[in-house]
Amino acid sequence: MAPLERSSLKNILQMVPTHLKKLSTPLEQLLREINDQYFLAVKRASVEYTFKCSKINEEKKAIDLPPHRLELQVYPKPWRGAFIEAQAQLMESLHAFNPVTQKTLSLWYDKYQDLRVIDVEDFHNRKDPIELSVFQTMVSFRVDRVKRILNNWLLDVQDIYYEASRKLLVPLSSEPTNLQSFFNSLAVLMTSQLQEFALFSLRDYTSLISPSSGEPTGTLVLCCIWF
User: Fold this and answer.
1) Helices 80-93/176-209 angle, 10° precision
2) In contact, 107 and 158? CB cutoff 8 Å
3) Which domain of life, per UniProt (predicted)?
C-alpha cells in the first residue's frame, strides 16, 4: 500500500497555526493520526471496491442466465415444501429405486445371466456322434438341473426380501395398496428376467439345430440308419 504523499502532508501542515507547530509532541501525534486515518480509508476503499465488483459480476451472470436458472436463484424457495413432499411420495411409490429391486436385478446379472435350458457347449465340444436317445437324456438331465438352479434363484430373491423387510425397506402390511404395488413391480422385473432366459435359450437351441454363417461348428445333425 502506497504511503501518504509528502505534498499532501505539507498541505495539511500549512493549515495548522504557527503557535501550535512549536508543540512537537502534539504535532507528531497529529501526523500519526493522519497516517492511520489514511491507511484505514485506503483499506476500506479497497474492500468496498472488491465487493462492488463481485456484485456487478454476479448481476451480470444473473442477467446472462436462462429463465429457468434465474428462477432457481430465488431464495427462500417457495416451492421447497412441494418438492420435499413430491420427493417423499416418489421414493415411496417409485419402486425402481427400492434396494430390493436393485439387489434383485444385480443378483440375476451376477449369477444367472448366462443360464440356458440347453448348454450348447456340451454339443459343440463333442467330436463323436450321439444317438437321439442319448441327446434326449442329456437334455432331460440339463432341464432338471436348470429347474434346481431357478429354485435357488427364487430362494435368493426371498432372502433379499426378508433382509430388506427387517430393515423396513419394503412397504408395511398396514399399507396394502402400496405393498401390492411393490410386489407388482418386483413381479414385472422377475418376469422380464425369465422371459430373457427363455428367449436366449430358444436362440441357442435354434443355433444348435440350424446354425447361421459364422457360428461355431459341432451342430446337431440327424442321421437315419436303416437296418
Assistant:
1) 50
2) no
3) Eukaryota
Angle at 93 between CA 87 and CA 96, to 5 degrees: 95
Number of continuous H segments (helices) and E segments (strands) in the chain: 9, 0
Helix axes 24-64 and 6-14, enclosed angle (nearest 10): 130
How far is Cα 161 from Cα 103, in angstroms, rounded to an integer? Answer: 9
Cell match 461355431: residue? 216
Q: Where are the domains of the chain?
A: 6-60, 98-209
- pTM, two decimals, is 0.55
Q: What is the C-alpha to C-alpha distance for residues 71 and 176, in angstroms, rounded to an integer?
A: 40
CB 124, CB 207: distance < 8 Å: no
Q: How far is CA 169 from CA 6, 23, 92, 185, in A?
A: 78, 86, 10, 15
Give the model's pLDDT for residue 20. 66
Using CA atoms, how far apart are residues 6 and 128, in angstroms rounded to an integer?
110
Other CB atoms within a 10 A radius of the CB of residue 219 amount to: 14
Can you tell me the distance from the alpha carbon of 39 to that of 4, in angstroms, rounded to the nearest whole number? 8
Q: And the C-alpha cell for 148?
A: 434346481
pLDDT digits (tens, 9 = 90+) for 95-132: 777 888 889 999 999 999 999 988 888 777 777 777 88
From residue 98, alpha-carbon distances to 185, 190, 205 in Å are: 10, 15, 36
- C-alpha span between 141 and 11 (Å, rounded): 111
pLDDT range class, residue 150, cuts 50, 70, 90: very high
CA atoms within 13 A on the CB side of 13: 16
